[in-house]
Amino acid sequence: MESEKKQSSSVSDVGAWGMNIVSSVGIIMANKQLMSSSGFGFSFATTLTGFHFALTALVGMVSNATGLSASKHIPLWELLWFSIVANVSIAAMNFSLMLNSVGFYQISKLSMIPVVCVMEWILHSKHYSREVKASVMVVVVGVGICTVTDVKVNAKGFICACTAVFSTSLQQISIGSLQKKYSVGSFELLSKTAPIQALSLLIFGPFVDYFLSGKFITTYQMTYGAIFCILLSCALAVFCNISQYLCIGRFSATSFQVLGHMKTVCVLTLGWLLFDSEMTFKNISGMVVAVVGMVIYSWAVDLEKQRNAKSTPHGKNSMTEDEIKLLKEGIEHIDLKDVELGETTKV
Predict the structure, then answer these.
(1) pLDDT per residue as tens digits for the range 212-251
(2) Does 36 reside within a domain?
(3) Considering all CA atoms of the chain, what is the largest pairwise distance in Å, rounded to the nearest integer?
(4) Which of 19, 166, 203, 253 would bridge with 243, disulfide CB 3.0–4.6 Å?
């Protein structure tokens, strides 16, 4: 019976990762067509993120109204604080991309892994084995090889990048801690924060986009093709947002960052297949190193769990399993969205 539960849990874990990867890669492809100059030229990434959260909030309200999901109490100040951190993350990522080179932007995203590790150590006293640390370094090196090109930075861009890395890391850690603190599922938490994020992004988003692009969204000539891409992007964003919260609730912010780089590999591959992007030996070798690092990371985490199980007294181990079971029953997370392409996680 216990083995069946473990097998079912493993299947649902794989399903959560699969949903996140498919929806994240899909939204990048949709936004690439929507926002590129060769597509529909919709250059309002922050406002688009507001649309994403508006639809997510609507789905949450319908789910609560029909009884498909329950609504537990979370203090309003915690919801507001979390929403502010999440919105700062989105805006800072956009500004970082605008002010810095793509190479430095990619480096700043890679730095989220060690930053998340340090923050989890400071906030939750979490420790990592040597194998886990080594595998994280392999992933960082691999993704760096296949994504980082020119590296240029200025003072304003550096401040924006630091703000983006800190706020995004804090947001992802907070998703897991809030779910555990109030015993709420991922969708319940998302349905409470999405309306606040949607309202604030739809109010301030057009002004942020004007600062970034020099154009107001009211000047954009909407077409049926653009409307279709926006609706597709919003639909994918709902699954992307839900799966992001789901993954972080089940695993950790560090695991989400490490295994989330599989999306980078998928995006590069699909860009080469669908959009004639250049695929060099450097890209291929970097992707191979990154995938090897992800495999090693999965092995290292499993090894760490086995060591902890052996070193923990039986009575305490049983109590921990019960606690974990209770937490998982309460848990149903623009990469961060890839803001340069307008993805919603991680736009």
Answers:
(1) 888 889 899 899 999 999 999 999 989 888 887 777 766 6
(2) yes
(3) 66
(4) 19
Q: Are 297 and 141 in contact (CB under 8 A)?
A: no
Query: pLDDT tens digit string along 108-160?
Result: 777 777 788 788 878 777 777 777 777 777 777 776 776 666 666 678 888 88
For residue 28, what are its two tokens?
């990048």
Residue 291 lies in a domain: yes
Q: Which residues contact 164 (CB under 8 A, 6 or more apart)?
A: 89, 92, 93, 95, 96, 108
Hey, what amino acid is at 115?
A: V
Tell me, yes or no, whether 93 lies in a domain: yes
Which two structure tokens, joined as six digits, stand for 5?
Answer: 């539960």
Number of domains in the chain: 1
Environment class of residue 315 by beta-carbon count within 10 Å: exposed (0-12), middle (13-18) or buried (19+)? exposed
- The angle subtended at Cα 106 by Cα 85 and Cα 139, nearest 5°, is 100
Among the listed residues 213, 175, 231, the one whose alpha carbon sits nearest the alpha carbon of residue 346: 175
